[in-house]
Amino acid sequence: MAGLALEGPNPDVDVLDGINGLAKDAPRWVNHAMEFIGEYGIVAALGVLCLIAWWTARRRPDGPAAVAGPVWAPLAAGLALLANIPIRGFVERPRPFKDHAGLAVLIPGKSDFSFVSDHATLTMAVGVGLFLAHRRYGLIGIGLALLEGFCRVYMGVHYPTDVIGGFALGTAVALLLAPLAQAALVPLMTAVGRSPLRWLVQAPGRGAEPAAGGRGPEHGPVVAAEPALRHHAERDKDLAA
Fold it and tell me: Which of 34, 40, 122, 172 has the fewest other C-beta atoms within 10 Å?
């Protein structure tokens, strides 16, 4: 495995050299698969995961409020990518293959700056956003984001710190802006639930029979049926006595 052109020890480049070195020894079909997965596949899988989370949320009795969570995940990703624009322009870090010889670059022609990774930012923002709404889907999303980060380094288009920076940015946006997003999205989804587009936030037949002890879509707490019946029965006994 050919080494990189280094000047003194650099852990960032050492990790890049080790992970990207796997691409040099891998069969061509493996590298083609990693290229597709790292560039398009994981992003597409997260899109499908968001749709599944939305479909699941709209089937809950509190569908309009529940749907706000899955809706926030892709919005957080978009905001995180916008936040990355000035960061990239300020840091202006070249792609690793421009400064270091011997890399196996699976996607040549990348001419923009390297820090921070857009793919890492987007995928982690979606993963964390989904985690806030649904823990299981969120863990799957975060796992996909970690795989995305590995792929970007494997492909030779990002340093490990580019990926770590993207993870941090995506997480920060998804977490810090979540309260504001919920404050705006829950009323919006509730309004959609009262419109002809209700099917977007509430599955047909759902929401009319809220769970005992929970809240209906437009009402306060629902009292459990069994204690109410017991109360009436005791009252009837007292009257009979």
Answer: 40
